[in-house]
Amino acid sequence: MKAVRQRLKDKNLEGWQRQRLQVAQMGLEGTKTQPQIAEEAGVHQRTVRVWFGLLRSGGLEKLLRKAEKGKGPTSWLDEATAGQMQQQLREGKWRRAEDAQGWLEEKLGCKLKLVTVYKYLGKCEARLKVPRPIHARQEPKAVETFRANFRAQLLGKEIARTQRVHIWVEDEARFGLQPVTRRVWTRKGVEVKAVVHPRYKWGYTFGALELGGASSAEFLHTDTVCQQATAAFYGQLAASDKEAVHIVIADGAGFHLEEGNELLPKNVRIITLPPYSPELNPIEQLWDIVKDRICNRVWEDLDELQGAINRVLEEYWSNPARVRSLLGNHFVHSEANASSMRDAAA
């Protein structure tokens, strides 16, 4: 106690040293509890306990010694383990930080705090992302083969270089009176509700976006999906430029048309995507945009809903820049533009 009082008389003390000595003095006097000392000193109770521990273990010299920066504990994450951890992250092995914690503990043979795991995840540039769903029946090799051979399929249509060509990505979506709900911005603690009125009525929208060229967009609403409905839409594409050849890239749904089908217009060619591979068709993004604009609403009937859908689609059929923006970064757009067939496009 005497030594503490004597050091407090030193006029060369720094502010943080004087604060620690004052805390030590109150503790040695024994008239105040730790919470009271912490409140009077303006620090947290944990800080008071740490300072008392320094005083007990090393006296005033340790209490008044400034901790050296950059002298923390040595990291368990060596270069080899970091590389293996990055590979686990590339493969999406962990959904929670606790999953990474278990892997690290098994790998390193030591118990790690969760805060340390988060630090190691940060060092490996880990990011928490929502995965893109992939159908269990998708064949990855078929997807890779399609990517590798896509340009060859375009050129394999054997269309004269003087012939105008339009290349379309095509798909269809079902829209109905079943509610579509999406997230909304709100304040913390506020319960968000969306009024719904589920009914089993729906219609279908066929859509096609042009790769390059005029970046056109064509749409057709139908009551059902069948080969006749598909033929009507392909006929609409064919009629948009009767003197041109139209190459349609679409999935292999049973109601789609293959080359040789008598319902297929004569100036339409087909390229079929591998099964269960919607990521290969960039128009799929458009349906999510539409749903985002019609969500959290009750629609009186299908006509009202269709009107709302048309207001979204009009932004694409009337503005080629929107089409280019949607398709521009997709591989089918790049491959179509890189093929010599693009020279013949309108």
Tell me what the structure shows.
With 346 residues, this protein is of the alpha/beta class. It folds into three domains: 2-63; 79-123, no CATH class; 147-183 and 194-344, Nucleotidyltransferase, domain 5. 45% of the residues lie in helices and 11% in strands. It contains 13 helices and five strands. The protein has helices at 2-8, 15-29, 34-41, 45-63, 79-90, 97-108, 114-123, 140-155, 227-239, 284-294, 302-317, 320-327, 331-338; strands at residues 165-176, 202-210, 217-222, 245-250, 268-272. Strands 3-2-1-4-5 form a five-stranded mixed β-sheet, sandwiched between helices. The radius of gyration is 34 Å and the shape is elongated. The relative contact order is 0.11.
Key attributes of the depicted protein:
Nucleotidyltransferase, domain 5; elongated; 5-stranded mixed β-sheet; single chain; 346 residues; 3 domains; 45% helix; 11% strand; disordered C terminus
